[in-house]
Amino acid sequence: TTLSLRLSLKDTLIIDNQILQFTISPANVTTQPEATSSQMSVFTAINSDGTKNKIEVVATKLVFALQPPASVAQNTNFSARVGARDANDNFDVDYATSFTLSLATGTGVLSSVAGLTQTPTNGTFLWTDLQYNTVETGVSILAQSGSLTSATSTACSTRPAACRSPHPRQPRPPGCSGRTATSAPSPCPSPCGRCS
């Protein structure tokens, strides 16, 4: 005898590649009284095939699972994570087509030492070395991958990098006047170009 089981799953909190397995045992099977039923012979517990009934999430879009910070320092590392999800926002952990980041809005240059194109792991990728070189507001990032619907990050602003001060002091070079020069290379303006 073949028994068929049909069920519906909620459209969220689904885990990609999870296998649903079912068991029928004598303890949880009942029949109608003998007068109206042929009853059921003794049987051992039956398990469904542990290699079937696999959940397959198929990505249709990209999302920023981790948005860039609302404010970042110019030419300073910041992070963002992109993931591949289906229409119900479940992650497709098998998705392996490269993600590419580019500038959606802004006039500067978005960069990454590791590279703006990366292959996801378990359907996501985390950049930790993104940088932007222009001080301005309304900067957003575009994520693209294959035929998936692209994603645009929330807008952020870029502020000037903080001055690195104080630094160890040293005698002023010839021609310097005003403050004492320092040993650290600082982009901050100073009378001799070396004072922070």
Helix content: under 10%
Alpha carbon gap, first and last residue: 85 Å
Largest sheet descriptor: 4 strands, antiparallel
> How do the SSEs run, as a string of H and E?
EEEEEEEEEEEE
Structural class: mainly beta
Q: What is the overall silhouette?
A: rod-shaped
Q: If you compute it from the alpha carbons, what radius of gyration comes out, rounded to the nearest whole angstrom?
A: 30 Å
Q: Unreliable segments (pLDDT under 50, ≥5 consecutive)? A: 180-196
Query: What's the total helix number?
Result: 0
Q: Name the strands of the widest sheet in spatial order.
A: 3-5-9-7
Determine the mean pLDDT.
81
User: Strand fraction band?
Assistant: 25-35%
Number of strands: 12
Please, could you describe this protein's structure?
- With 196 residues, the protein is mostly beta strands.
- It has no helices and 12 strands.
- The protein has a 4-stranded antiparallel beta sheet, with no helix packed on it. Strands 8-6-10-11 form a 4-stranded antiparallel beta sheet, with no helix packed on it. A two-stranded antiparallel ribbon has the order 1-2.
- It is rod-shaped and about 110 Å long.
